[in-house]
Amino acid sequence: MDLKPGSRWKSAVCDTEVVVVRAVKEPAQLECGGHAMVAHNTEKPAGLSLAPEFAAGTQPGKRFADEVSGLEILCTKGGAGSLSIDGRAIGAKEAKKLPASD
Amino acid sequence: MHTTLLLDMAADAAPDRLALGRMADGVTFDEVRNRARGGAAWLGDMGGETVAFLGLNGPALAVAVFASGLLGKPFTPLNYRLPDADLNKLLARTAPSVVIIDEDMLGRLQPANGVTVVTRSAFEAACLDEANRSRELPEVDPDIGVLLFTSGTTGEPKAAVLRHRNLTSYVISTVEFLGSEEHEAALVSVPAYHIAGISAVLTGVYGGRRTVHLPAFTPEIWVDEAAAEQVTHAMVVPTMLGRILDVLEARGEHLPHLKALSYGGGRMPQPVIERALRVLPHVDFVNAYGLTETSSTIAVLGPDDHREAISSSDEAVRRRLGSVGRPLPTLEVEIRGAEGELLGPGQSGEIYVRGEQVSGEYLHKKAVQDDGWFATNDGGWIDDDGYLYVEGRLDDVIVRGGENISPGEIEDVLREHPQVADVAVLGLPDNEWGERVAAVVVTKDGQPSRDELGAWVKARLRSTKTPEVWAFRDALPYNETGKLLRRQLKTEMTAAPAAA
Fold it and tell me: Would you say B62 and B205 are in contact if contact means Cβ atoms under 8 Å apart?
């Protein structure tokens, strides 16, 4: 999968959608709910179900960063699954709140 | 990442929240998206590769920004305050394009090749038309989000290129998604063709904050609207703030709902911000420094910095009120000397910036270095604690006998004088020194003598920084976004120098 900045992906098993903010350094597989995510404009594969170990849920606006692959993504739509890269769970990036400037 | 995704996110997660307009009859995020889709379908039929906008600020601006984004066409707001000839020249540069224009500005346009003219009301009607809203839009791979003609206080305006990725990088790294509370509202009074007008559209949507537009600024209307709409957040330029404070004090109005006031776009005179902190003690003040070429803010002096500075007896801390705060954590700022060498704390040079929100690019001309650094053409320095001080445009630096003199420093000293209301310092051609220092002063409460003002500066700076030429005026020329028109003053002063 070509995880280039700006590319959009959706979960194969829930409503989660993400956009890539920073690309991966090495090829990697982005997953949600335990299954590879699919390109935003393609059909979801049939017959898959949410893996219980990847079912913590996602919220829109949360940013995720994976130090190993360098990938950074922004969740644009929440869902029941949780995110992983090559089977490795990735956590939300701590948001640094700034004072409103415009 | 595409700017329209910011709207999609807000419209999906908070469809019924008010996005634009007044409490009584505002428009929801879902409706903004529907209007943008309707407007995009309709504009798409008009052809052109750019969507230009010539009109006052208002909900249609925000809708037009997203409609252009949906079409993958750069949105190009034009400065309606330009003389007709200059305005028509800029419009011609947008071709092939479609321009959305306020009805009462139609008479100013000359027909131009490749420019389709549509009125704002026709656009607004198209946005509401169900036939347009339900149409399938073509898939686009958008690149340039906004083309913004720089304010052009000097020379021919350049078209700064802001790509979708620059703009979204700025938004998602500085704003928390739907981080605003539902009752919050921002009052936007900067014009559409200013970078702050564009970034306010994007950050307002992503933060989930209702935006109330003020089509044209007067301090009275600003205060009326802020009070009536229970405005919690606003951004003003320095010249606006002083006038707003006058109205507040005259009326005894305290704007109890106002939580945060940010300012930027020009140098804030220290007496004005000190007064603002006194008049509005419950308000969080934020000084934001940024450029068009950096997708808006790159450094902020936050509310705590303001409070700490105003109440400190330590000169180094107090001085921070005159700084623009610290750079955003998502980008890098350096000060470099004339040879490009890196300078240390306290050393004055040119401000350089690098980061994803930095476009540093004009149409047909890349101004960013290969390693990503952008030279801002602003002079400045950073103190030991990382606070950035902006000294003004490097073009404005006065070179007197080989010494670089920053006008801002002398202006700051003169503003502290009780009889100085406003002042501009600039260099005039001089046969002996190359340039000599001139001051144009607006006085209040009587007129101090030249000698008195000269002694005031000399006692606080040094003799080479003491103006040799003095002129007195009723007002100084500013453009509408608060930038002093220094070059205009310089031309006038060179043509008719005042008595020394």
Answer: yes
Domain B397-495 sits in CATH at 3.30.300.30
Per-residue pLDDT tens over the stretch B216-254: 899 999 999 999 999 999 999 888 898 999 999 999 999
Token pair 């420094």 in the structure block, residue: B289
Q: Nearest C-alpha of chain A: how many angstroms from B23?
A: 20
Residues on chain A touching B284 (C-beta within 8 angstroms): 99
| Rounded-to-integer distance, Cα B156 and Cα B55, Å | 21
Q: Which range is least confidently modeled, A78-82, B14-18, B137-141, B483-487?
A: B483-487
Q: Which of B140, B141, B176, B178 to mutate to test the interface with A (most CBs of A within 10 A)?
A: B176
- Please identify among residues 1-60 of chain A the ones whose CB lies closer than 8 Å to any CB of chain B: 5-6, 8, 19-21, 41, 60
Residue A68, in any domain of the structure? yes
> Has residue A102 been placed in a domain?
no
Determine the residue among B4, B166, B172 to mutate to test chain A binding: the one whose Cβ has the most chain A Cβ atoms within 10 Å: B172
| Beta-carbon separation of B5 and A99 below 8 A | no
Beta strand pairing call for B284-291 and B260-263: parallel
CA-based nearest residue in chain A for residue B328: A98
Q: What CA–CA distance (Å, rounded) separates B185 from B347?
A: 41
CATH class label, B3-216: alpha beta
pLDDT surpasses 90 at B453 = yes
At B235, list the tokens: 């951004």
Contacts for B312 with CB less than 8 Å, ≥ 6 apart: B318
Asked, for residue A97, whether it belongs to a domain, the answer is no
Write the residue in A21, A60, A100 that is nearest to B286 by C-beta.
Answer: A100
B290-395 homologous superfamily: Luciferase; Domain 3 (2.30.38.10)
Within 10 A of B60 (CB to CB), how many other CB atoms are there?
A: 24
Residue B286 has its nearest CB partner, among A41, A62, A99, at A99
Decide if A67 is inside a domain: yes
